[in-house]
Amino acid sequence: MLLSGNTSFCLTIECSRSVHAIVLALSLEVSDFHILIEKRITFMDRVKRVIHCDRAYKMGLNGKNITVAVMDTGIAPHLDFDQRILHFEDFCQKKVAAYDDNGHGTHVAGIIGGSGLMSKDKRGVRLLSGVAPRVRFVVLKVLDRKGNGVTSHVLEGMDWLLQNREKYQVKILNISVGMMASAGKNEQEQLLHAVDEAWNQGIMVVTAAGNNGPKENSVTIPGISRKVLTVGSWDDNVTETGNSGRLTKNYSGFGRSVVYRMGAFQSLALAAWKYGLPEGLTNGQVRSALSAVMRNMFSVDGNFDDKGFLALGFAGHQPDLANYYTNNGSLYMTSLVFLPLGLPADHPFWSDPAEEWTSQKAWAGKAFPIDGHQSLKK
Fold it and tell me: ∠ CA 184-190-195 to the nearest 5 degrees?
């Protein structure tokens, strides 16, 4: 696909098997929301245990005084990034203020260095902090709201980075783009040269292998560079031997996607747990509605594979629903609907009587409020 004569980039979202499957045997009643959890819900803490972040933290290694450049779709100024976004440069629309009209760049930055401030529980534990929660960011927006970009923007971003790396003390570059096969040889060489030069100047470059595997020659540019660190993915449990040696299952990210079960309810669950529900919406309605939806969704067969990982689909195994750019890390989206579990047993969310919710009232011909914008801040 060509944009303005330049080769388009396909956003390669290569998320690891970062969140273990939430295997839930749910016995849900509309009125009292009984939940039996067979396996403990885990978030980013599982990833950090797997890669032994605890050892690094004990040594005082938490990203402090390290700057990571993220070349992606931008970044939203979320509270989890504190004041650690040192600079934002927009090569797509030339805007000054930081923004992310796609969301992937913010997702990546959160994994790298989100502080977890907004997921802090009553004990003060930050449930969703990134790997290096004190790292600083320089964010270069080179991909648009659809996750596409042009060669010239990426090259401009690389030039800017090399000119400003000392100013911001950039040590690492995360670049989540992959050049498509239709790219001309000159453009391929230019991008490869740019990432190689960044490495030569002391920047560790981490790039995605792409979403085209596992066939031969499927790693996208700049991932084929011999100098950079390329992150791949694995779609099955087969052990293979290739030219580069033995490749075992789970050697890297799990790869392709799942649709966001329950993800649409994250704002509603967060409002119930942290901010308080908008006027006119009761705890009884929210609990009843969420319980009914979860009961329908998780009572069907096929939600989890034989190893306990969430399968592709909405209710059961429906792989055709998944888009190529979503990812298996969507489990964290699914789990957000369970935020009210952090509320005490005597909270109105649990103690208020069950009530009909809007869709029930609407289909029953009863009066119900119109939809409108609601602020969750108080």
Answer: 130
Angle at which helices 185-200 and 151-168 pack, to 10 degrees? Answer: 10
Name the residue type at position 9.
F
pLDDT at 264: 65
Cis peptide before 214 (omega within 30 of 0): yes
Q: How far apart are CA 362 and CA 367, in angstroms?
A: 7
Say which residue the tokens 């004190």 belong to: 134
> What tokens does 132 get?
């290096």
The CA distance from 373 to 378, in Å, is 15
My answer on whether omega of the bond before 369 falls inside 30° of 0, hence cis, is no
Question: How far is it, in rounded angstroms, from Cα 83 to Cα 215?
Answer: 43
pLDDT in tens, 67-120: 999 999 999 999 999 899 999 999 999 999 999 998 899 999 999 999 988 877
Q: How far apart are CA 253 and CA 50, in angstroms?
A: 13
Sequence-ordered list of residues with C-beta below 8 angstroms from that of 215, at least 6 positions apart, any chain: none
DSSP string, 259-316: --TTGGGHHHHHIIIII-PPTT--HHHHHHHHHHHHHHHHTSTTSB-TTSPBPSSSSS
Q: Average pLDDT of the chain?
A: 75
Strands 6-11 and 148-150: antiparallel
